[in-house]
């Protein structure tokens, strides 16, 4: 499921030949579907929420319509049945996420976390995920794995709760990880950049 979702979304967000490269990423497709899963949204508002310009939002909407993921009504853009199915696949892969602002993890920047289901064994050193987050605009990122009732960072921190008790408890309560789940945290100067970085790192774990 994750592999087919990743291939489908990457093709959707990728360059169409012939033509210029796209000015948006897989994250913008993901976030557009997430926003539209909640309610219909007009083009201008959707562009504002995604942080993209007029040209990019026109292309995003066009691609989503061509893929039969959205339809346009008087209320704005809204998900089709296929769009809701694709969004459901995203929710299976990333069932929970939290914006926990400025915290003890990084008090000077915004922090965002994604729960990635059953991908703990794919994390390794976490360097690949960190690099993906930084390329996407985050300043810092790290990945924790839930194992034997504790969150740990491979070869760095064996028990996050001892070092960062308040934030770790918040993540455990709100994300509710299970054995072998991964939690990706990214930090940036804005909530949107932090979310984009955390998503990019999480996306890199799918079918890794």
Describe the structure.
- This protein is of the alpha+beta class and 208 residues long.
- It has 2 domains: 2-91, Arc Repressor Mutant, subunit A (Orthogonal Bundle), CATH 1.10.10; 95-205, GAD-like domain (Gyrase A, domain 2).
- Helices cover 46% and strands 21% of the residues.
- It has 9 helices and 7 strands; from the N terminus they run H-H-H-H-E-E-H-E-E-H-E-E-H-H-E-H.
- The chain has helices at 2-13, 26-36, 43-50, 54-66, 81-93, 127-135, 160-163, 165-175, 191-205, and strands spanning 70-73, 76-79, 97-103, 106-116, 140-147, 150-152, 182-188.
- It has a 5-stranded antiparallel β-sheet with strand order 3-4-7-5-6, sandwiched between helices. It has a two-stranded antiparallel ribbon with strand order 1-2.
- A hairpin with a 2-residue loop joins strand 3 (97-103) and strand 4.
- The model has no long low-confidence stretch (mean pLDDT 91).
List strands and helices in order, with pairings.
Elements lengths: L1 H12 L12 H11 L6 H8 L3 H13 L3 E4 L2 E4 L1 H13 L3 E7 L2 E11 L10 H9 L4 E8 L2 E3 L7 H4 L1 H11 L6 E7 L2 H15 L3
Helix pairs in contact: 3-4, 6-9
Low-confidence stretches: none
CATH architecture of the largest domain: 2-Layer Sandwich
Number of helices: 9
Structural class: alpha+beta
**Largest sheet at a glance?**
5 strands, antiparallel
Q: CATH class of the largest domain, please? A: Alpha Beta
Q: What is the tally of beta strands?
A: 7
Q: How many structural domains in the coordinates?
A: 2
In the CATH scheme, what's the topology name of the largest domain? Gyrase A, domain 2
**Annotated CATH homologous superfamily of the largest domain:** GAD-like domain
N-to-C span: 13 Å
Shape estimate: globular
């Amino acid at each position: 499921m994750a592999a087919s979702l990743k291939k489908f979304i990457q093709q959707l967000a990728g360059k169409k030949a012939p033509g210029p490269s796209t000015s948006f990423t897989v994250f913008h497709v993901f976030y557009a579907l997430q926003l539209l899963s909640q309610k219909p949204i007009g083009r201008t508002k959707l562009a504002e929420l995604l942080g993209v310009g007029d040209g990019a939002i026109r292309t995003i909407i066009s691609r989503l319509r061509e893929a039969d993921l959205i339809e346009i009504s008087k209320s704005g853009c809204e998900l089709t049945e296929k769009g809701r199915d694709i969004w459901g696949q995203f929710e299976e892969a990333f069932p929970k996420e939290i914006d926990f602002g400025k915290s003890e993890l990084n008090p000077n920047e915004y922090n965002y976390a994604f729960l990635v289901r059953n991908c703990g064994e794919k994390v390794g050193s976490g360097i690949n995920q960190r690099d993906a987050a930084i390329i996407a605009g985050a300043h810092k990122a790290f990945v924790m794995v839930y194992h034997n009732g504790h969150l740990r960072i491979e070869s760095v921190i064996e028990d996050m709760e001892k070092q960062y008790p308040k934030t770790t408890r918040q993540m455990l309560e709100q994300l509710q990880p299970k054995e072998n789940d991964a939690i990706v945290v990214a930090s940036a100067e804005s909530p949107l950049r932090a979310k984009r970085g955390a998503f990019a790192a999480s996306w890199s774990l799918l079918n890794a």
